[in-house]
Amino acid sequence: MQDFADRLSETARDVEALLGDLLAEKPQPGEIARPARLLAAMRHAMLGGGKRLRPALTLEVARLFGRADAGVMRVAAAIECLHGYSLVHDDLPSMDDDDIRRGRPTVHKAFDEATAILCGDALQTLAFDIIAAPETDDDALVRAELVLGLARASGLGGMAGGQMLDLEAESSRLGEAATLEMQAMKTGALIRFSCEAGAILGRADAEACRRIRRYGEIIGLAFQLADDLLDATATPEALGKATAKDQARGKATLVALYGIQETRARLANLVAEAEGLLAPFGPAAAPLAEAARFVALRES
């Protein structure tokens, strides 16, 4: 069996290829035209590499329940578009004010702020366009469930709301519970849905969906803990972006609350819980257990 890092690289190549097709020059039915500058900005944002963790989680969970087809890949690409929009907007001067993303200029630096805002807007709507299209799944109810799930994970009560709480936290000290809630919304909600989407596509039963949902929550928290740890300990060269930004801006992080050693211990506990949740699925869930270890122990 391929290890997860190899599977992740394979997923990244496949998702990149599909995103390239989805961001082609030719307008789709119902579209009037695709402005060249906006399309170039979207391609800059989406085709510049990245781990593609969220699509990989969708694909691995769907495989666990017997699905591995073009429709699953489309949902994975849609989630990546939603994630890409959030990065474009997060990098803006009014948000995190970052100049580098994945070792390249951020969209507002490579183009301009107005184009970056429109780029994010267009990527967000493209995500729902992809999922809602009939070729994603034959069952309109499944497509509707996916659209609803993505909206809830990314909107007011999910990612966007979490970003608002993160901005507010720069001027106030958050305790552990408030920091966990903020991180669960800003980062965790979309990662959790990436897992849930695979279960929805695979028509998993209620108990399996419950386990996958909790697994997704664990992966989301582990990702944020590892991200905070890397921001505190890694070099900019290793990450392809600036580091130590959270401390400089007084942001609420779990590493600031727990310390480095306690954070590492909590990551180990999360991996163990993830493995326990997956145990009833047997050997078929091994890639997901490996994904948990990969997220918790990553170095970039």
How many domains? The number is: 1
Question: Strands across the major sheet, in which order?
Answer: 1-2
Number of strands: 2
As a percent range, the share of strand residues is: under 5%
CATH superfamily, please?
Answer: Farnesyl Diphosphate Synthase
- Low-pLDDT runs: none
CATH architectural label: Orthogonal Bundle
Helix amount: over 70%
Mean pLDDT: 93
Oligomer: single chain
- SSE string, helix = H, strand = E? HHHHEEHHHHHHHHHHH
Large-scale geometry: globular
**So what's the CATH class?**
Mainly Alpha
CATH topology: Farnesyl Diphosphate Synthase
Biggest sheet layout: 2 strands, antiparallel
What structural class do you assign from the helix and strand content? mainly alpha
Number of helices: 15
User: In angstroms, what separates the terminal alpha carbons?
Assistant: 24 Å
